[in-house]
User: Fold DUF3955 domain-containing protein from Pontibaca methylaminivorans.
Amino acid sequence: MFPRLLTFVVVTLMGMGCATAYASISSTVDAQGYLREPFFLIPLGYLFLLAGLGGIVFTLLRAAILRLVEPHPNS
Assistant:
């Protein structure tokens, strides 16, 4: 369970990193009047956050259900 949970935590942190990067990179308007901004970071960040948090919830719920259904052999 731990490696899978760690993977989802890393994916969640990547989503937070995308949000932080978007906030820290400034938007500019070039000489022709085009807006230059890192817009791709917004949906990418939401995707990472949704996948990471969903995976964490799923992993923890699965572990709790398995613990209830199959008691530990040493108990």
User: Anything to note?
Assistant: The radius of gyration is 19 Å.
